[in-house]
User: Which sequence fits this backbone?
């Protein structure tokens, strides 16, 4: 028993050049590709420059500062963060925030869950569960006082957070976390 | 948790497609024989992509899923490339004539950043010692330069004489 195989006629689908050799050159396509390359290289450069300036996090454009009315709390943070990359949020408290040798501050739960708070320094004397967040109490003897929260967000997106000194003032801000 | 699984797969897809695009733009020089210069490029690009693709997920499960994802992407792209001549041109580029009997194609040489010395190096590998021995030089889509020698009966004796002097 013979086995049949299917065949198609041998044809040259590649155009011949100068009637001597089939190369398949397509200069019109190649010229369009070179034009595309001339456009894409400056775009690559712009992306790198934008990154160096902090437009993609960790730089001058990414740094942000927010202050409550009256200046009791000033917050230094990064408005643009990168996923799974550590950063620091610093809270500066003026004398107006200190009452009876203590600083009380409310931190919304988005700071812990979405922005991935890893560590808070100094350690608060009291941490209490509040409504949609945590109430921290720090012992404060000198002013200005400073608290740092180390962040490491895991989920990309725009995340809102809120910091509040009870009965004084609040800060609401947004952070863009890049993948 | 489900989002983490999705994001690892999406990262693998993005990493693969981004590398395909970048390597295509960087040029087709990386080919049959890589120079040390090109070795650096290929390994560095691969290493940097790996960092972003894996992220914090260093598990074997993640590695297997991402490898399978990249394999499927590659199969899908190869399948589309087989069916579409336009996509083939886009992914592989087109062969370019670098030199023919009229002379060097300077537009192609400049565009691909290939020096005439590169062509002559390939010609020497084939035992061709001067320009008059080259009938045509073509940059193939896979990055290799093909040099076609002049048939003995086509060789111009005057040109041969000039080249030998």
Assistant:
């Amino acid at each position: 028993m013979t086995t049949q195989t299917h065949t198609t006629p041998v044809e040259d689908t590649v155009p011949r050049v100068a009637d001597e050799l089939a190369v398949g050159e397509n200069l019109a396509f190649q010229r369009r590709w070179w034009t595309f390359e001339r456009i894409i290289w400056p775009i690559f450069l712009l992306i790198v420059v934008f990154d160096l300036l902090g437009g993609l996090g960790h730089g001058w454009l990414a740094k942000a500062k927010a202050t409550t009315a009256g200046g009791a709390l000033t917050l230094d943070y990064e408005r643009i963060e990168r996923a799974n990359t550590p950063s620091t949020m610093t809270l500066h408290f003026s004398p107006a925030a200190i009452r009876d040798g203590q600083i009380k501050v409310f931190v919304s739960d988005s700071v812990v869950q979405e922005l991935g708070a890893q560590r808070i320094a100094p350690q608060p004397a009291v941490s209490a569960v509040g409504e949609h967040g945590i109430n921290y109490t720090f012992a404060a003897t000198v002013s200005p006082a400073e608290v740092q929260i180390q962040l490491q967000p895991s989920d990309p997106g725009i995340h809102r957070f809120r910091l509040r000194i009870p009965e004084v003032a609040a800060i609401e801000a947004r952070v863009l976390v890049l993948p | 948790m489900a989002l983490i699984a999705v994001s690892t797969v999406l990262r693998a897809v993005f990493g693969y497609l981004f590398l395909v695009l970048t390597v295509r733009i960087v040029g087709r020089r990386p080919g049959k024989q890589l120079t040390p210069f090109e070795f650096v490029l290929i390994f560095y690009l691969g290493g940097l992509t790996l960092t972003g693709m894996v992220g914090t997920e260093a598990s074997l499960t993640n590695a297997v899923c991402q490898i399978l994802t990249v394999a499927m992407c590659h199969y899908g792209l190869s399948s589309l490339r087989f069916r579409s001549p336009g996509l083939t041109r886009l992914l592989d580029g087109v062969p370019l004539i670098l030199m023919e009997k009229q002379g060097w194609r300077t537009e192609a040489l400049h565009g691909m950043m290939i020096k005439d010395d590169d062509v002559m190096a390939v010609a020497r590998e084939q035992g061709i010692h001067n320009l008059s021995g080259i009938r045509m030089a073509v940059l193939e889509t896979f990055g290799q330069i093909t040099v076609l020698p002049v048939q003995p009966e086509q060789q111009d004796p005057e040109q041969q004489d000039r080249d030998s002097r």
Notes: Chain A has a mean pLDDT of 88.
